Amino acid sequence: GRGAAITGWGSALPPTVVTNADITTLFDTSDEWIVERSGIHRRHQASGPFVADADQPPVHPEDGIGSTAKLAIEAGREALEQAGRSGADIGMLILCTTSPDQAVPATSSAVSAALGIAGGAMDLNAACAGFTYGLVTATGMIGAGLDRVLLVGAETLTRITNFADRSNAFLFGDGAGAVVVEAAPGPGSLLGWDLGVDGTLVPLLYADHGGPGMAMRGQEVFRRAVRVTVESAELSLQRAKVSIDDVKLFVPHQANIRIMDAVADRLGLPRERIASVIDETGNTSSASIPLALVDAARAGRIAEGDLVLLAGFGAGMTWASAVWRW
Ligand code: ACO
């Protein structure tokens, strides 16, 4: 088959920055508690109590461009520019999101129109494991004959956050990250991967249409996340026939710094090799892995040929990992 490679990347964060001090105005909590329990100092928000009414994008806009689409367009445009491509070169847009702008149609439709995507477009919802699900899907489509896929992770989690619930409202943020995935000579970059879901665990983390927002059993999610992420990452390493020592950069789902550190420790990976933006972004679900990956790429932390380990877990409960040659 044909292999795939990442040839461009981009990111977007909404302008409103919400600090832990801002969060303390919502309910009884403190900066110290939030930092110690999660590693989060700030997050960017496109909607919610700290965004001026005039800036709040409508949930059902007539042009179909809500806040998730806006972030996806900005990140996608930057990734295309960096790859030296335009929408006309793209055979498929995969938009990974668990906070689409409306129930129907897929948010990818509006993004596709704005970017002039020549091929198809679809949303992919695997919650916080979404981007890695998308990377494996994009690589598969390239194996099946497409030349280029634009893969975006974009979220406006603040639209489904319960700002009255102090047990989790401080965790979530908004943002988007994008990569262009292109056909490459040889075996390509996806060396090993693992995707999974355990649907019996839906009650641990969910948000209903029209409900109060995200409900989460935090401690159960925490314990399970560490175990499942480690197991999945080990499976991907084994399938890639590499060891953890070969991994230059570990890009975990940015849910909680304690989960990220615990996973790295159990894998035997030094914490310096973790890519982390959680202090600045909070948990951005499908956007978290591409935001951390793009940040590391810009900082020069990965060079061509380096091995990157992606791993995440999310509502569903889903999980996903992949070993990718940069
Ligand atoms: N401020 C101050 N105190 C608080 C707050 C708050 N915001 N929230 C809860 N507390 C209190 C609780 O009431 C509890 O008090 P008690 O001991 O008197 O009963 C105490 O702090 C400890 O609460 P815990 O829930 O045990 O806190 P924990 O250490 O588990 O941290 C957290 C909570 C950060 C949510 C953690 O459980 C976690 O990160 N879980 C995983 C979350 C996650 O990864 N979610 C993403 C999954 S996928 C997705 O993103 C869609």
Summarize the structure.
Helices cover 31% and strands 25% of the residues. The protein has 9 helices and 13 strands. A hairpin with an 8-residue loop joins strand 9 (205-206) and strand 10.
Description:
With 326 residues, this protein is an alpha/beta fold. Helices cover 31% and strands 25% of the residues. It contains 9 helices and 13 strands. It has helices spanning 20-23, 31-38, 67-83, 107-115, 130-143, 218-240, 257-267, 278-281, 288-298; strands at residues 3-12, 16-19, 42-45, 92-96, 120-124, 148-156, 174-184, 190-197, 205-206, 215-216, 247-252, 307-314, 318-325. Strands 1-7-6-4-5 form a 5-stranded mixed beta sheet, sandwiched between helices. α6 runs parallel beside α7. The model has no long low-confidence stretch (mean pLDDT 96). The chain binds acetyl coenzyme *A. Acetyl coenzyme *A is lined by residues 29, 33, 37-38, 127-128, 166-168, 170, 205, 218-219, 221-222, 225, 255-256, 259, 283, 285, 314-315.
